[in-house]
Amino acid sequence: MKKFLKISISILLFFVLLTGLVSFLLIHNYNTWEKRFERNIYENNLAILPYESDGSVEMKIAKFTLSNENTESLILSPYELSNLILLTSKGYLDKEITVRRVYIEPGNFRWNIYMEFVYKRYSVWFSVDINKDDMQTVQLYITDIKLGNYSLGRYFDLVYQINTGIANSILTVNENGFSGRYLENIELMEDKIVVKGSRY
User: Is 133 helix (H, G, I), strand (E, B) or coil?
Assistant: First the structure.
């Protein structure tokens, strides 16, 4: 009986130590990634709380929606879209969880969007890659979602669920006229995102 207890305790201690070691390595790896990532942030594409809108983005959206032109384009810089995401996120999160910073790495056909979530004294960076094929369409999609440098996309069908949500949202906007225009095309460029829409 004593021998069994010793073996059981030894196995338990081994798993506790192994769990602690793995946790330490994961946290250390994340912290190393975070320091390197934040050191390379391009400040002009970074939105930070507290933020007060100057109304320019709202004016652009209003012009896009209310214009009498048959075809109109909404053009936003990475910084403007970062701020729009930052402000919009307030209405979808629990009071104790906030998005403190939003950062965008723009590129042709692919934008990486990073969001720093804060809960009490803890904070982590999540990111998604927004992609757009080189064709006349409004369809956007992601290929992964990450916590720091750890890929989460393969778990729980997250990528499929998010892409389904994006497709359904765009379809709903177009079918119900929520934007005031029928969205025809979205372009992801090095320095801007362009949304093209026509009157119903």
Answer: coil
pTM for the structure as a whole: 0.87
* Cα separation values, 191 from 43, 45, 47, Å: 14, 10, 16
pLDDT 10s digits, 71-102:
999 999 999 999 999 988 877 777 788 899 99
Nearest to 139 by CA among 179, 180, 195, 88: 195
CA distances from 183 to 125, 131, 140, 161, 200 (A): 31, 17, 12, 22, 10
Q: How far apart are CA 32 and CA 67, in angstroms?
A: 48
- CA dihedral (44, 50, 55, 58) positive or negative: positive
Residues 135 and 53 reside in one and the same domain:
yes
Residues 36 and 60 in one domain: no
Number of domains in the chain: 2
